[in-house]
Fold:
Amino acid sequence: MSSGEVVASYVVPVHPHTVLAPDQNPGWRRLRDAFDHAAETIRELEADLIVVYSTTWPSIIGHQIQADPNPEWVMVDHDFHDLGSIPYSFNIDADFAHAWDDANRNRGLQSRCVNYKGFPIDVGSVVALTLLNPDNRIPAVIVSSNMYANRSETTVLAKSCLDVIKAQGRRAVAVTAMSLSNRMFTDFIEPEEDKIHSLKDDEWNRKILEFLEQGRLEDVGQLSRTIHQQIRVQKVVAFKPMWWLSAMNGNRNDLSGRVLAYEAIHGAGGAVVHLDPTPSGAGDKEYDEDDVEYFHGERGVLDTVDETEEVQATPTAPTVEGSGPALWEPTAGEGSVNTEAAPKPVGAYPHARRVGNMLFLSGVGPRQPGTNSIPGGPIHDKDGNALNYDIKAQTHAVVDNVKRIVEEAGATMDQIVDVTTFLVDMKRDFQGYNEVWAETLGKVGPTRTTLAIDALPTPIAVEMKVIVHMPE
Amino acid sequence: MAKGKIVAGCLAPHPPHLVYAENPPQNEPVAEGGWEQLRWGYERLRASLAHIEYDAIVLLSPHWQTYVGTHFLGLDHFEGLSVDPIFPNLFRYHYDMNVDVELAKAIHDEAAAAGLPVKMMENPDFRVDYGTITTGHLFNPDWDKPLVVISSNRSTAYYSVEVMQEIMVELGRVTRKAIEASGKKVVVLASNSLSHRHFTTESEVPEDMSKEHITSHAMHLWDMRMIDYMRTGQAQRILDEMPEFTEQAIAESDGGGLSWLLSTLDVPDYPAILHGYGTIIGTGNAVVEWPCHAHEVGEA
Structure:
């Protein structure tokens, strides 16, 4: 819908051998050459952002995002300190980091940015950015891997990242810094003795790589629990990076994959894999876990909440302060289409209703599912005092919400035939709204009517009424 | 040369919150207090050992995690800035510490002779882990004793608690042997929590003690069971129940520190002194001293 997109994805190994000792082992050299090849491809793609999900940066308090614009230090690996030191000075996109942090919270995730001199950037991120972005030309962002997170939290983390990539129109490269099998030899070995720790690990690694070469990333994601049981040392509760990477690619199984190298690093399986978003025509998904747009996990652990009371109070419960009237559960009736991925209604109505091959959406605003927050900010505070707000961000959020409802109904955005837009301040907002329209729904081509109105029920500036014509 | 000896062994947890709450000049963030039961427990531990002479501190830290063998700091001096990668908002500590390389090498050599994979860490750019710094500061804020710092081999993750404990009991045995051969008086510290399930959220004011409690009743029961064994001189039962404790309480004993400590003390059958217990972001932590000096032959 918008111009932002993931232009390439990479799986890369985490250990420092490829930086510090590529010529001590032919396999390490092949991995290094693959890194160099990947760096060249990223340059040719004119990517303007590298997003690293690192399995060697564990976190406990949700996910952490590096937001120091220029972190500098010298990294020494805890195990392989005798290989040497890696000085680093990275170009971090702090603005993107903060926007991702906001987007995470909009989707129910615990998240925070870190910006501290001397923060110890983990070995996986240091290796990835040192080799994939050697001249620091492309700004990067790094996110931690929460040690307690499971699939839903990790998937939503990727979706919130995509929210920002799309909103900012970025050409992003998604990178998972990870081993395949991660069992290393527990004794010291000479470089020439290196090999995958066991035949079983090697067989599983090759199966994963076969899937990736076929572009079947979502299949690998759905095998993550099995992979964790079979070839992962149980350091954390789950093998997560493929969940994140698959969600970054729309949970697709038809990417174009290429394994650039696969070798052992002290027994662990290290691979450099390029996943191109160009459809390969590979197979459909054979098995699909529930998709998730919003994280409902173990928030509120610190505060004891009477959940019974909370549920009973839902229809009349106060909303986020300043965000307007009480929220309702969407009503369920014949043809109703409702989704957790869209904001709750402010009255007794469904998100959409299907009649024959026509789908009619209730008015859709920019409020975020779960938090009820308003991207771009509310138009006034709880006392009615006017606030500055970003009409473009609000309009983008409206379109995203429309998309979620339309897709929940099994339709697609290009089937939208008519839109009525309501603006509370035509003079101020029409231009910004119109720009976002041109980038999004304008490319689809529905008829459109834009009206100025006095107010909307919540402190938002824009709402759309959408009609979709679905195939029989 | 007189025979060396261990004068005390301590369970000395390392959550950075404790340093944060004390506001030492080395740490950048500023707190309004918090976790007093544990911090005052450390005060009591320091007072308890104030009259005891010793030459060095031997510390095993679960936050220097090594997967290939057990490693020892191998240079005389380390200084720099330690930023906790998990709680950087609480811990950004400027450290300056000395290492007893001679004793570290002696333990390393004994371990190698016993067949354990070991390595000396001699890279001057190496950043000392925050677990070592936190326990080092809380036990000896003056930093006037040299340390021996031992990494935590992650054999629990690779194999099982049983295998980990087998390795750590052996590492403890050779640690004791090397200390005795060194002629030095030494305090040994295991830098780990007991139950180790964290909250995944943090209150707006991290030191808000109204938010602090154990994550579950089961964790509390396990912590009290282990502490009771310590208080009643039943160290062997701790070792016996280590697999169940480690798995069911998600205990930080998975890093091997507690097993190693009890082995260096030759599995003591005398009561330990509980100086303090408290929770930190939901995890269970105890400051415990085994007063070896009072249980030597002729002194008990």
Observations:
- Chain A touches chain B at residues 57-62, 74, 76, 78-82, 84-85, 110, 114, 116-120, 122, 146, 148, 183-188, 233-235, 266, 298-303 (CB under 8 Å).
- The mean pLDDT of chain A is 90.
